Amino acid sequence: MVSVLVRNWWAFLIRGLLAIAFGLIAFFEPGVTMLSLVLVFAAYATVDGIFGIVAAVRAASQHERWIWLAVEGVVSVIAGIAAVAMPGLTVVVFVTLLAIWALITGALMLFSAFRVDADHGRWWLALGGVASLVYGALLIIAPMIGALVLTWWIGAYALVFGVMMLIFAFRLRSKAHTLSAAAV
Prior knowledge:
Blueprint: H1 2-7, H2 9-28, H3 30-61, H4 67-85, H5 87-113, H6 122-141, H7 143-183
């Protein structure tokens, strides 16, 4: 397997460069990045809905249960159309969903912390719960700023990932030169 990776070191180089490019775009054009993510979701939801409707039609033609497939398909298509028609609202809904998730899981973690023995890390669990509660509250208070920060986090991840891929690619490339020199 290592020889395959060594021969294809350039693929990791391209992957890293693309990740870095995406990360830079996410940092310098967060609105464009968030809109792109909304549009990718819209395309996915629409195509998924169409396939759901096709599956429902096929099931109906075979006299099988089809109604829930059709409902799911229609809901997905509507969600895709809504995301394209109202991208700002789509972002706010996503951030609000993330906020609600953070608030619920944070509260559950905090309640759970008091059922754990102190020597088993109760306070770490409690701090994790408080962090989730604070994060959820901040997202509720300022959802668009939350969306901007989420975009920056995605960008930061892409940059770090891209740099790691570049380092890996160049390590593989040096291994390829070492193997070539050993073969000669």
